[in-house]
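G., the chain you wanted modeled:
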Amino acid sequence: MIKLELQEKLKILADGAKYDASCSSSGSKRVSNKGFGNTSISGICHSFSSDGRCISLLKILMTNCCIFDCKYCINRKSNDIKRAIFTPEEICKITINFYRRNYIEGLFLSSGIIKSPDYTMNLMIETINLLRHKYHFGGYIHAKAIPGSSEYLLKKLGLLVDRLSANIELPSEASLKLLAPNKESSKVSKIMNFVNTNKSKKFVPAGQSTQMIIGATKENDFDILKKSESMYNQYKLKRVFYSAYVPVNNDKLLPSIKIPPLVRENRLYQADWLLRFYNFKVKDILNENNPNFNLLIDPKADWALRHMDEFPKEINTSSYNDLLKIPGVGITSAKRIIKARKLFKLNFNDLKRMGIVLKRAKYFITCNGKYFIDSSFFKYSFIEKNLVLGDRKMTNKKIEQLALFNE
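Predicted structure as tokens:
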């Protein structure tokens, strides 16, 4: 391999890591008593934290060399691309220098598989061990576990990092065999089970996550959500990340698309949020007769429009779970409603002040038995009038028209 300057390595290996979406953090309280850097409960990552902050991390591969030949991956061994590998000391040098300059708040370290899974894991462990014990770096570290590596190495890595992730890659074993014949979903499941079984304050304190590529294979949205729900229930994952398939390789087994399915990816994230925080089940959102999302409206609004028999919800008497079903009402606003109505009866002006999105919610709620009607009511389309009056037989065409009208 040609010897490269550190800056050139950074350019190559940062670019090679950009397609991995599974970097997120929360729940870690690591504090450095000897050195510098620390994490907080909201976490540190190159993403948006749970409280809405945009936070940064150094996101790199240890190497983009790989013994695997996954059809969808830019770093697959059959691709003719420039290859590079960091030494453990080089990663430490970059991380510490970037942190001191306030460029980053933590590190996300992944890698192609070089020589073998165990060999790659040993390199990652050596790197993070240096950061923790030689450089006394107490900041957030998220590492990608290598499927097929030993439990002994997984344990060592898990004691050094805040979060681990093992990517399931594709929604089914059949798709994995088709596009990533060197990988086995059972090896990823083994990692997830090990982390879930051994998780503690010292071992992977911020939990684990995974990623699925969306749109590279034939699975529908129902299949994908069922897979996610199963992993949440079985392994107690913090997050499942959905990555719209990006056509970076030419292969007859890959779909012929020019634009990644980003709207579909967004709908999956919205539905995933409903599963994790709004007490929805997959069967509430999709089913075998309705296996894909309506791309025109978000899953919660789509569910509400197809269950008009459950509406309107009276704001002053509905339970917390019922409030969460209302489009335009989120977790924070539902809690505000519950708290405020103990003191007085709420009206629509109160809801506005609380941050409820009345543009969405007004069709599905009443305040003190009355619907929302403003001065521009008679300018609304017939679709809005039918909704306000409680029409429960809306056709798909009307729903789509309503979605377009409200954009």
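The chain has 16 helices and ten strands.

Shout if anything looks off.
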